């Protein structure tokens, strides 16, 4: 099974994202900390990987970056408990939840769905598959992001409000998670704007010398 | 290409749904008519087909039914014009956008995403593939839905605010539409609740004796 997960971006049928899962990030956007996970989706057409570039939709000036730990599902699961959840995991990845923040603010004011702000093409820059045994959920992973060489985000997965097993259990109560699906588990504080021509670098560091980094450009016009 | 579309529900990678695309339905929910399409997604795990049941998630009491005309993409398209849009279509289907209305209203009040209220398993009861040639976009298709034998919704696709080509052009500006993708084009007035034990029947009729019917129990 794990063989096909190396190509998870090709087989993935849905990307489920969690909002406000780090309390500092909730406050920086003036939001309250949620009592239940806040979930939304990106379509698989959102994937982009280096050397391809993030494309800001032509009528927008900027996007916000959000660096996240991604969890890739191996075993299909539905209504699993927190205790069973870890068995469903096939691996991990580093990903970005690129967001049209101004659009998102307008959509929120009107009570409209978020798809336009969160689901456009290239809104999910995504790194390669990292095998399950390289990351232990009982230890913390550091995730960071810099823009044009300046550090913007630097967080630790131990600060997640809802843990990975919490998230899998919650989502799978309502939505069956399938082999190859990706869950983006939220972003730490430090989100900010990128414009055309900017370069983003992001990485994760964990136990046992785990190190993953990627660089992706924001396309010029 | 069209052969694989017979199995569109297995190859589909995304279901893009359009809100408030019939003005009477906009008013019945106290909403204004939009100036641009309102778009959201259901995951493909939402599909349910006959003879399986619509399952209301355990902690909820009821769902709202919404009967919709579905458009299935054949040719991948990105940033297409209204004029080019029809060439991307592979076929059509009848579908329902099952919705947890109370939850959706709470999410809207808080400016939160709609996924939980719109994307749960079995929130997309979906009929079979209808080939493109059976429906002309220049003619209107009648959609209807009954609950326990009582007519609840009855509408005509000519009353859509944004036409099918409008929708494809708009969506494809931001999101590439791929072979097998499904667009749900909005629902006419008459939405209402169903509870466990109810029976939904839905159908569509069009020119050249087009007739499609489907039935779902609510479990």
Account of the 3D structure:
The complex is a heterodimer of chains A (221) and B (219). Chain A has helices at 2-5, 8-11, 23-28, 82-85, 101-110, 115-118, 164-174, and strands at 15-19, 38-42, 47-48, 62-65, 67-73, 89-96, 124-125, 130-131, 142-147, 150-156, 182-184, 192-195, 199-206, 210-217. Chain A is α+β, with helices and mostly antiparallel strands. Chain A has a single domain, classed as Fumarylacetoacetate hydrolase, domain 2 (Alpha-Beta Complex). Chain A is globular and about 45 Å long. Chain A starts with a helix and ends with a strand. In chain B, 19% of the residues lie in helices and 32% in strands. Chain A binds chain B through residues 13-14, 16, 19, 38-41, 43-46, 57, 78, 107-109, 111-116, 118-121, 173-176, 178, and chain B through 13-14, 16, 19, 38-41, 43-46, 57-58, 78, 107-109, 111-116, 118-121, 173-178.
Which terms summarize this structure?
heterodimer, A: 221 residues, alpha+beta, Fumarylacetoacetate hydrolase, domain 2, six-stranded mixed β-sheet, four-stranded antiparallel β-sheet, 7 helices, 14 strands, B: 219 residues
Order of helices and strands of chain B: HHEHEEEEHEHHEEEEHEEEE
Q: How much is the average pLDDT of chain B?
A: 96
Mean pLDDT of chain A: 95
Helix content of chain A: 10-25%
Structural class of chain A: alpha+beta
CATH class of chain B: Alpha Beta
Q: What is the annotated CATH architecture of chain B?
A: Alpha-Beta Complex
How many strand segments of chain A?
A: 14
Q: In the CATH hierarchy, what is the architecture of chain A at level 2?
A: Alpha-Beta Complex
Q: In the CATH hierarchy, what is the class of chain A?
A: Alpha Beta
Please list the strands of the largest sheet of chain B in the order they lie side by side: 2-1-11-5-6-8
Number of strands of chain B: 14
Which geometry of chain A do the CA atoms define? globular
Overall SS class of chain B: alpha+beta
**Succession of helices and strands of chain A:** HHEHEEEEHEHHEEEEHEEEE
Oligomer: heterodimer
Largest sheet of chain A: 6 strands, mixed
Low-confidence stretches of chain B: none
Q: What is the CATH fold-level name of chain B?
A: Fumarylacetoacetate hydrolase, domain 2
């Amino acid at each position: 099974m794990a063989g096909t997960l190396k190509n998870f971006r090709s087989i993935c049928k849905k990307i489920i994202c969690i909002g406000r899962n780090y309390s500092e990030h909730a406050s920086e956007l003036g939001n309250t900390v949620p009592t239940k996970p806040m979930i939304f989706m990106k379509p698989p057409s959102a994937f982009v990987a280096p050397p391809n570039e993030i494309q800001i939709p032509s009528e927008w000036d900027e996007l916000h970056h959000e660096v996240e730990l991604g969890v890739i599902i191996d075993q299909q699961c539905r209504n699993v408990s927190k205790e069973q959840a870890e068995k469903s995991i096939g691996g991990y990845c580093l990903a970005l939840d690129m967001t049209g923040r101004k659009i998102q603010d307008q959509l929120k004011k009107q009570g409209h769905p978020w798809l336009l702000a969160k689901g456009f093409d290239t809104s999910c820059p995504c790194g390669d598959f990292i095998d399950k045994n390289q990351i232990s959920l009982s230890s913390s992973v550091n995730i960071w992001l810099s823009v044009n060489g300046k550090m913007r985000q630097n967080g630790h997965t131990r600060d997640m409000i809802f843990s990975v097993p919490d998230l899998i259990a919650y989502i799978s109560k309502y939505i069956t998670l399938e082999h190859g699906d990706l869950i983006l588990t939220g972003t730490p504080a430090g989100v900010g704007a990128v414009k055309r021509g900017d370069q983003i670098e992001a990485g994760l560091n964990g136990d046992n010398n785990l190190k993953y980094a990627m660089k992706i450009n924001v396309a010029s016009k | 290409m069209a052969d694989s579309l017979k199995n569109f529900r297995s190859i589909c990678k995304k279901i893009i749904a359009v809100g408030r695309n019939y003005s009477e339905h906009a008013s019945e929910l106290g909403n204004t008519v939009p100036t641009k399409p309102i778009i959201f997604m259901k995951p493909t795990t939402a599909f349910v087909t006959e003879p399986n049941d619509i399952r209301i998630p355990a902690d909820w009491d009821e769902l709202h039914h919404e009967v919709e005309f579905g458009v299935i993409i054949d040719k991948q398209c990105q940033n297409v014009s209204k004029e080019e849009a029809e060439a991307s279509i592979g076929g059509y289907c009848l579908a329902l956008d099952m919705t947890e209305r109370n939850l959706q209203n709470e999410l809207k009040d808080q400016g939160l995403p709609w996924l939980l209220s719109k994307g749960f398993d079995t929130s997309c009861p979906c009929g079979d593939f209808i080939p493109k040639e059976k429906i002309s976009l220049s003619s209107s298709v009648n959609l209807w839905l009954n609950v326990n034998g009582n007519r609840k919704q009855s509408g005509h696709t000519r009353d859509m605010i944004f036409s099918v080509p409008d929708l494809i052009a708009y969506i494809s500006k931001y999101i590439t539409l791929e072979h097998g993708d499904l667009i749900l084009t909005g629902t006419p007035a008459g939405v209402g609740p169903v509870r466990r034990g109810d029976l939904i029947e839905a159908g569509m009729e069009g020119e050249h004796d087009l007739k499609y019917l489907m039935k779902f129990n609510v479990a």
